[in-house]
Amino acid sequence: MFDAVFADAGIEVLKTPVRAPRANAYAERWVGTARRELLGRMLTFGRRHLQSVMVEYVDHYNVHRPHRSLGQAPPLGPAQPLVAATGGPVVRRDRLRGLIGEYSQAA
Q: Looking at residue 36, what DSSP letter applies?
């Protein structure tokens, strides 16, 4: 049914093979990262708990977590403008009850 809607809009539908990890490399990479960094280290108790955990992890992933391919910058840019401060204390912010730590330098 959806294929006809896309065909009417002039969009070609490509079917991805089942269990082919290279078919959608970006999605597979994100799923693997979420499994390694979050889901493999935490027990989730139901759908609501999983949704709240994933919302917080997605925020961490897109706003704070450094990505090597982006020059150690997060995909959505830093949450706070970068300031070159020297000698200031380093502050840790716990995410997901301490599972993930976000570090920043206090101004």
A: I
Two structure tokens written together for 36: 């390694």
Query: Cα separation of 70 and 97, whole Å?
Result: 27
Per residue in 48-89, pLDDT (tens digit) is 999 999 999 998 888 888 777 777 777 887 656 666 667 778
**AA identity, residue 72:** Q
Closest CA to 3 of 16, 19, 14: 14
Cα within 13 Å of Cα(19), Cβ side: 0
Query: Would you place residue 27 in the very low, low, confident or very high pLDDT band (cuts 50, 70, 90)?
Result: confident
Query: Please, what is the Cα angle at 34 between 31 and 36, to 5 degrees?
Result: 105
Long-range Cβ pairs for the range 72-77 (8 Å, 24+): none
Q: What is the pTM of this model?
A: 0.66
CA distances from 40 to 35, 66, 81 (A): 5, 20, 32
